[in-house]
């Protein structure tokens, strides 16, 4: 089974990722949420800050092993 790591422990972000993967791939995955640091404000106020936060979260979990990595920034 392929593994998906979500760069957050937020249940809303984890569930959104599960729904998206099911719709796109229509197969089973193992999902794991991991705490990560966005290094931006809790509520990003620009597209640039939102993108930077998502990129930072991915860098923060880059030492993990998975088939897919997902980062959802904001809220």
Topology of this protein?
Blueprint: E1 2-6, H1 11-25, E2 29-33, H2 47-60, E3 68-70
Parallel strand pairs: 1-2, 1-3
What does this structure look like?
The chain has 75 residues and is an alpha/beta fold. The chain is built from two helices and three strands; from the N terminus they run βαβαβ. It has a three-stranded parallel sheet with strand order 2-1-3, with helices on one face. Helix 1 links the parallel strand 1 (2-6) and strand 2. The longest helix is centred in the first third of the chain and has 15 residues, at 11-25. It is globular, with a radius of gyration of 12 Å.
The general outline is globular
Structural class: alpha/beta
* Low confidence ranges: none
Overall radius of gyration: 12 Å
Q: Strand tally, please?
A: 3
Strand content: 15-25%
Strand order of the largest sheet: 2-1-3
What profile does the largest beta sheet have? Answer: 3 strands, parallel
Properties at a glance:
75 residues, alpha/beta, 2 helices, 3 strands
What's the quick description here?
With 75 residues, the protein is α/β, with parallel strands linked by helices.
